[in-house]
Amino acid sequence: KAMRELDVYRGHVLTVEEGSLGGVSIQFTSLDTVGREGVILQPGVLDRVEHEITGFSRHGPRLNESGFHLKRGTLLYGPPGNGKTLTTRFLAGVARGRTVLLLAGGRFGSMAEACRVAHRLQPSMVIMDDVDLIAEDRSSSRDCSMLHELLNAMDGLSIDADIHFLLTTNQFELLEPALALRPGRIDLLVEVPLPDTACRERLFRLNCASVKHDGVDIAGWAERTEGASATYIRELIRRAVMKSYDEGGSVDLRQTHVCLLYTSPSPRDLSTSR
After folding, report:
1. Burial 11-23 (b: 16+ CB within 10 A, else e)
2. Which of 184, 183, 39, 56 lies closest to 125 in space, CA to CA?
3. Distance from the Cα of residue 94 to its chain's centroid
4. Distance CA 178, CA 186 (A)
């Protein structure tokens, strides 16, 4: 019991991956702090996901006593570039006292071991970005071995394990229904859509906060960029800043915003259309 409680990895953010010489490598990882003000989603979305973490943590002992399981899964889905990964980083920050294990892309091969580590270091959270890379519908012709490993790893944990699986995907329609639509594996589905006009205005103000933009019609830009993703808006501001340097050596968006309206590609060229 003392070994578990005093484990050097407990309470930290970790990456788990296959070692270059075999076995598994566990590395300490530092994440950039993401505050609530930096996650711009439509009203209620962030509150809903955050409650899934804090609520279960707060009521965990009572739920256990009542015979309900603590193991749970949340899936964030929607077009790329709209804040799913940023949301997971924010949630990792608010999950105080939890060990956070990060898996992404080529690191899914260490999934079974990551789940074992998560069980040993619970309360814990396993974050898997782009889960569609391994969890495509079994009716497809692709190799399903990694999908089976994921399902087995999630199902093999004891029902009283205080482990939260937090998954993201850009392509919900491709996912295996036995994962995406089965409570006990995924208990909460949350769509992270393209930002609406109000969110786009907040995104413009957030990304313009450190540069001079008095007189720039930000509300007008929010109206004109329907269909733009959050990352597109950030790129638009970055290019405006670069153009300001080209034109005058100082950052002043008043010099460039009209020109950019005509020289920037359509938002639909860089983001998923509705």
Report:
1. ebbbbbbeeeeee
2. 56
3. 13
4. 9
* 188 dihedral zone (left: phi>0; alpha: psi -120 to 50; beta): beta
> pLDDT digits over 114-165, tens only?
888 898 998 999 999 988 888 888 877 567 778 888 888 888 777 778 899 9
Judged by DSSP in three states, 221 sits in: helix
- Do you know the residue count of the chain? 274
- Residue 25, Cβ density class (10 Å: 0-12 exposed, 13-18 middle, ≥19 buried): middle
Report how far residue 77's alpha carbon sits from residue 74's, in angstroms, rounded to the nearest whole number.
Answer: 10
Cα four-point dihedral sign 221, 226, 230, 236: negative
* Predicted structure pTM score: 0.85
Q: Say if CB 79 and CB 229 are below 8 A apart.
A: yes
Greatest CA separation for the chain: 67
- What are the residues facing 101 on neighbouring strands? 14, 126
Classify residue 100 by burial, with Cβ atoms within 10 Å: 0-12, 13-18, 19+.
Answer: buried
Picking from 267, 265, 271, the residue whose alpha carbon sits closest to that of residue 79 is 271
